[in-house]
TrEMBL record:
<dbReference type="GO" id="GO:0004639">
    <property type="term" value="F:phosphoribosylaminoimidazolesuccinocarboxamide synthase activity"/>
</dbReference>
<dbReference type="GO" id="GO:0005829">
    <property type="term" value="C:cytosol"/>
</dbReference>
<keyword id="KW-0456">Lyase</keyword>
<comment type="pathway">
    <text>Purine metabolism; IMP biosynthesis via de novo pathway; 5-amino-1-(5-phospho-D-ribosyl)imidazole-4-carboxylate from 5-amino-1-(5-phospho-D-ribosyl)imidazole (carboxylase route): step 1/1.</text>
</comment>
<keyword id="KW-0436">Ligase</keyword>
<dbReference type="Pfam" id="PF01259">
    <property type="entry name" value="SAICAR_synt"/>
</dbReference>
<dbReference type="InterPro" id="IPR018236">
    <property type="entry name" value="SAICAR_synthetase_CS"/>
</dbReference>
<dbReference type="InterPro" id="IPR028923">
    <property type="entry name" value="SAICAR_synt/ADE2_N"/>
</dbReference>
<keyword id="KW-0067">ATP-binding</keyword>
<comment type="subunit">
    <text>Homooctamer.</text>
</comment>
<dbReference type="GO" id="GO:0016831">
    <property type="term" value="F:carboxy-lyase activity"/>
</dbReference>
<dbReference type="GO" id="GO:0005524">
    <property type="term" value="F:ATP binding"/>
</dbReference>
<protein>
    <recommendedName>
        <fullName>PurE domain-containing protein</fullName>
    </recommendedName>
</protein>
<keyword id="KW-0511">Multifunctional enzyme</keyword>
<keyword id="KW-0547">Nucleotide-binding</keyword>
<dbReference type="InterPro" id="IPR000031">
    <property type="entry name" value="PurE_dom"/>
</dbReference>
<comment type="similarity">
    <text>In the N-terminal section; belongs to the SAICAR synthetase family.</text>
</comment>
Length: 421
């Protein structure tokens, strides 16, 4: 499928950007077979690099997008190109570090390689090749009063990019951990989407963007640092670099696969509770967790309740039970006393008797560990948090949702301040 290319908008060391004649607001990002280091002081052709880089960045953006992070990525178009929303780029490289190495050690003498940052360490570098991308402070960025696509980069925007960088790093760190790989550090860039005026993750994230140490061991590094560290560039050395890049582009596909699949089973005491249960099912869907609804009453049919329980315990799928029963909740406590799986009570509380009914979900005999969460959406979220411990894709959706909530509060506050000025 060939696209009608408009004019070339930009060309960098490793890619070209074209307007798309038939898709206003979209651009084509085309990778080149070139690898560079030290501000292009070292520069080589690497056959196949464009395809490898494009595969890598497309996978990484898909992972982030499915989690719910806002990015410029639209779709992978061909072997060497992807389509993205047109952005005006913010000329800052945002660097996020978990482990101290590289330039951080030079700038902070006395810190040993391998020092771990809790929380993550954030740094900013202004994109200025002539001055070798100097490190900038927040104050310098704020005082520059950059304006892109009609958006002025002020306190609110800087805070959003800072928070987003941390969340993006954490999502990718979790994903790489499933392949027993340490994400040491990485750099990303943001742009302002010209159509929506939103700040989004833009540019690319590929093997030039991060340091990756399998099993946390620097001597096994797989990223572009291998090329930077070469004493001399020989054909054999370039083959080794290429093998590393290929390994990363293959491994990154596995980051999109769920590690463990679980399910939520909602048991309701009566069919009249369906609307409440549907809210739980819908919320589970937003985390990508399968959810089944069953009707059973522990008061009126305890044998059937336990038979249903045995069915879900016996097929080996990790399960969280949610008990939805009005009036006196016998369902949750009976389940909780008879299964090792987690049980969440989510009773549909009514105004007249709710204050009394709730005690049947709260005050338990000894030996019962069921929790009680009143909001159906929150009950699904709690189940997702349990699965997120072992499934990085669920964890990522929770993490992105936390970021997006924070960002919308920040934007609401900015909007309100602008109105009252």
């Amino acid at each position: 499928l060939s696209l009608k290319l408009g004019q070339k908008l930009n060309e960098g060391k490793t890619k070209q950007i074209f307007e798309l004649a038939d898709e206003p607001g979209h651009v084509l990002v085309q990778s080149k077979d070139q690898i560079t280091a030290g501000n292009a002081a070292r520069k080589d052709q690497m056959e196949g690099k464009a395809a490898i880089a494009n595969r890598t960045t497309s996978c990484v953006f898909k992972l982030l997008q499915e989690a719910g992070i806002k990015t410029a990525f639209v779709r992978q178009q061909s072997e060497k190109a992807f389509v993205a929303a047109r952005c005006e780029m913010i000329p800052i490289e945002w660097v996020c570090r978990r482990v101290a190495t590289g330039s951080f050690l030079k700038r902070n003498p006395g810190v040993k390689e391998g020092y771990r940052f809790y929380p993550l360490k954030m740094e900013m570098f202004f994109k200025d090749d002539a001055n070798n991308d100097p490190q900038w402070s927040e104050e310098q960025l704020l005082e520059t009063k950059l304006s892109l696509a009609g958006l002025t980069i002020g306190r609110c925007e800087v805070d959003i990019m800072n928070r987003s960088t941390v969340a993006i790093f954490e999502v990718l760190e979790r994903a790489w951990a499933t392949q027993n790989c340490t994400l040491v550090d990485m750099k990303i860039e943001f742009g302002v989407n010209v159509s929506t005026k939103e700040i989004v993750l833009a540019d690319v994230i590929d093997n030039d963007s991060w340091r990756l140490w399998p099993a946390g061991d620097r001597s096994q590094q797989k990223d572009k640092q291998v090329y930077r560290d070469l004493k001399e560039v020989t054909p054999e050395a370039m083959q080794m670099v290429k093998r590393n890049f290929e390994w990363v582009s293959e491994s990154v596909k596995r980051l999109l696969e769920p590690q463990a699949s679980g399910r939520v089973v909602v048991l309701m005491g009566s069919i009249s509770d369906t609307a409440h249960c549907e809210k739980i099912r819908k919320a589970c869907g937003s985390y990508g967790i399968p959810c089944e609804l069953r009707v059973t009453s522990a008061h009126k049919g305890p044998d059937e309740t336990l038979r249903i329980k045995a069915e879900y315990e016996g097929d080996g799928v990790p399960t969280v039970f949610v008990a939805v029963a009005g009036r006196s909740n016998g369902l949750g406590p009976v389940m909780s006393g008879n299964t090792v799986y987690p049980v969440i009570n989510c009773p549909p509380i009514t105004p007249n008797w709710g204050a009394q009914d709730i005690w049947s979900s709260l005050r338990m005999p000894s030996g019962l560990g069921c929790s009680t969460v009143l909001s159906p959406e929150a009950a699904a979220q709690f189940a997702a948090q349990i699965f997120g411990l072992s499934d990085h894709l669920v964890w990522s959706k929770l993490r992105a949702s936390m970021l997006n909530t924070w960002v919308s509060l920040k934007q609401a506050d900015k909007k309100l301040q602008a109105c009252s000025l």
